[in-house]
Amino acid sequence: MLKCRTVWKKLAPLARASSTLCRQNVRRTALNNGRTPAYVPVAHMSSGPAGGGRANQIYVLLVGAACVGGGVYTYRTVKGDGQRYQERIEEISSRPIKTQDSYIQTEPPAVEATETEAVPEPEPEAAPSSEEPSPPAADVEAVIPPETSEAPPETSEAPPETSEAPPETSEAPPAAEPVVEAPPDEAAEPPAAPVVEEEPSAPCEPPPGELTEPPAAVEESEPSAAAAEPAEPAEPQPEAVAESGDSVAASLKVPSHAPYLLIGGGTASFAAARSIRARDPGAKVLIVTEEPDAPYMRPPLSKELWFSDDPSVTETLRFKQWNGKERSIFFQPPSFYITAEELSSAENGGVAILTNRKVVHMDVRGNKIKLDDDTEISYDKCLIATGGVPRNLQVIERAGEEVMQKTTLFRKIEDFKELDKVSRNVKSITIIGGGFLGSELACALGRRSSEFDLEVIQMYPEKGNMGKVLPEYLSNWTTEKVKSEGVKIISEALVKSVVSKDDKLEIQLKDGRLVKTDHIVAAVGLEPNVDLAKSAGLEVDSDFGGFRVNAELQARSNIWVAGDAACFYDIRLGRRRVEHHDHAVVSGRLAGENMTGANKPYWHQSMFWSDLGPDVGYEAIGIVDSSLPTVGVFAKATAKDTPRAATELSGTGIRSESETEDTATSPVASSTPAPSGSHKDEYGKGVIFYLRDKVVVGIILWNVFNRMPIARKIIKDGEEHSDLNEVAKLFNIHDD
């Protein structure tokens, strides 16, 4: 800009002089033409008075040259500034990249350390200023343990495994030369002793697989950084490595950008990740979850895990399905995933997980999110699959901390482990809630009642188990079945208050009944997690809760929602929100396909199932509400009409995984005639139709399995049926 001003100062007088001269010539010419218009030849304009046409040409040339020169100079100046700016940005961005690489590489960091050591004047070994913060990762120690123990400066390089390393690592961010002056002194104080102790941290093993430890390390690393080097808190990441090892280092290196970002680590999120990778094999997918575990199946937490004979089931989380086959609740082993720091550089893409991280803010316009540790991650496409949180009774929440400590809200792996431990150490457990979860847990704990001398109580406001879902006669039959499992039932119970007294919990009901127990399990429903709605500006449905989405499960052009948190429009049944495993699988899969450009609508009718032990189970689809008119068609059950037999036939305990792939085109009715007689109180197996305006909107298959595609087609057709007994024959319930 200074050069430009100088040039302009030189050219400006010439331009003004030429301009003045030109105006004077014009005036003179005008006067001459006005005085003697008849005698002035046309050619005179080019050879008129001094300073005439010749001066105009010079003026034009000067102005043109000035414009061209100014334009060229401006272009070169802007281009040069841009290049310098880009070089500066690359120089700044190169620093964090070096620190990341240094954690992974073992030999390069050592070389860098030796090179930088020669640069600093005070203490050559402490020189790892800009690049040392990363080498400190336990890799350096593993390669050259002797050096770390010899001099404090080098311990600062290796400290990634001790809390003292942080000081030097934090110095790295600034320029190399300036940092060298200050660090030597600080590094010399802490490094020596601690480094040698944690030298054998075996850094190479954790990074790839350990997804559960990262978060904790993050919290510890920050405090250590502050204590070691308050002056430069800008680099807490390397410091955390000193305390928790490589797994922490890996977790701390959060990618700044993820092409596919999935918020939530449940079934819907995993189904979406698998779908994205299937359609885009090179896709880079990042899952952010509040839980410490990789994606897993929730149904076994209230079903099969409780019937396992393995005493260490709470640690292995492996169970035998009803068909006898064993499997883990986790969808994939740790080797299936890559670490977060590997995501950006992975040639073939992959799925990475950030555990114990919560997304606290979402910037829809800026396409980025903020985590609870203030880390920001940008994205191209995002899926919200935050699921829900268990509801609690207000009377329990108001009862105080002592009551809350003896109350379990069942949802996660930790809840299963806690309740398993409690059931072995107390004498009485009360389950509040008569829905799917409450009834499943009641049957599961009831099986333990005789073995552990445990009293199991189930109370609910309805008249019978699953009273909001099953017709009254079937609800009553189910209640008797639950009682036979060793469960004490208290129906039509409304909780008035809960207090802790004499190391017991006293539950006061509104009708005056008093129940004393040691522990409470509240299974009263799920609240969709829509915490991000406010910061993201997304609409929440006022009737059903959850994020409102269109037929493609989109909330915005590049934001999708799936699972329990999605409120979608069902073309047959209207707007709905479903809280079941199969819906999570299907909606997550569809969202993943649409994130890769499929643009497919949600046509699927999801199903759900519940098992009251290995002998009684049912599958349902559509709207199953006991307030609707129902028609039930039942038959006598056989030995093969149980959940155990169904899984033996299908080969999977999670029945929806196979059912969602099936389709029904032209079901054939059974040729076996329906048996005569009413079979009073005999509900071994059957089909229950739920009607709205004489059209079937929901179906329950009671101990009838592997027929869900037929039920799905009946609801999809949306036709009136004059005789549902004939429709029931499509399910072959009368076949032996």
How would you sum up this structure, described in words?
The chain has 736 residues and is α/β, with parallel strands linked by helices. Helix content is 40%, strand content 18%. It contains 29 helices and 28 strands. The strands form 7 sheets. Strands 1, 2, 5, 6, 7, 8, 20 and 21 form an 8-stranded mixed beta sheet that branches. Strands 10-17-11-12-13 form a 5-stranded parallel beta sheet. Helix 1 packs antiparallel against helix 2 (53-104) and helix 15 runs parallel beside helix 25. The protein starts with a helix and ends in an 8-residue tail after the last helix. Residues 36-49, 97-251 and 656-680 have low confidence and may be disordered.
Structural class: alpha/beta
- CA-atom Rg in angstroms: 37 Å
State the share of residues found in helices, binned by percent.
40-55%
Record field, number of beta strands: 28
Describe the largest sheet. Answer: 8 strands, mixed
Q: What is the overall pLDDT average?
A: 75
Distance between the termini: 94 Å
Gross geometry: elongated
* Low-pLDDT regions: 36-49, 97-251, 656-680
Content of β-strand:
15-25%
By DSSP (H or I, 4+ residues per run), the number of helices equals 29
